[in-house]
């Protein structure tokens, strides 16, 4: 009777993988890289939270803003 943040994090990560390929013009360079995910301390208990850390990169500030907005939208969803 709970929401598993590990499962939610997996869905979030999968959704982020399509942000650049589906929402950014092919000639605009952008990168979304996730380098860290942490949740829970034991193997048989659903954790309260999950932390995900990563970076975004783009040479064009407008594209960077577009990527950041897409990340926020995916997170809200």
Key descriptive features of the protein:
77 residues; alpha+beta; two-stranded antiparallel ribbon; 3 helices; 2 strands; 43% helix; elongated
Could you walk me through the main structural features you see in this protein, from its secondary elements to its overall organization?
It is a single chain. The protein is an alpha+beta fold and 77 residues long. Helix content is 43%, strand content 22%. It has helices at residues 5-16, 19-23, 61-76, and strands at residues 30-38, 51-58. It has a two-stranded antiparallel sheet. It is elongated, with a radius of gyration of 14 Å. It starts with a helix and ends with a helix.
Short summary:
The chain is α+β, with helices and mostly antiparallel strands and 77 residues long. The chain has three helices and two strands, in the order H-H-E-E-H.
Order of helices and strands: HHEEH
* Order of the strands making up the biggest sheet: 1-2
Q: Helical segment tally?
A: 3
How far do the termini sit from each other? Answer: 20 Å
Give the C-alpha Rg: 14 Å
Q: In one word, what is the shape?
A: elongated
Biggest sheet statistics? 2 strands, antiparallel
Low-confidence stretches: none
Assess the beta-strand content as a share of residues.
15-25%
Helix residue percentage: 40-55%
Q: Averaging pLDDT over every residue, what do you get? A: 93
Q: Using DSSP, what is the number of strands? A: 2
Q: Pairing-aware structural class of the strands and helices?
A: alpha+beta
């Amino acid at each position: 009777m709970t929401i598993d943040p590990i499962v939610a994090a997996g869905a979030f990560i999968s959704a982020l993988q399509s942000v650049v390929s589906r929402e950014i013009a092919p000639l605009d360079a952008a990168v979304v890289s996730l380098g860290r995910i942490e949740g829970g301390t034991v193997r048989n208990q659903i954790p309260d939270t999950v932390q995900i850390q990563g970076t975004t990169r783009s040479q064009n500030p407008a594209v960077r803003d577009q990527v950041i907005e897409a990340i926020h939208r995916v997170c809200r969803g």
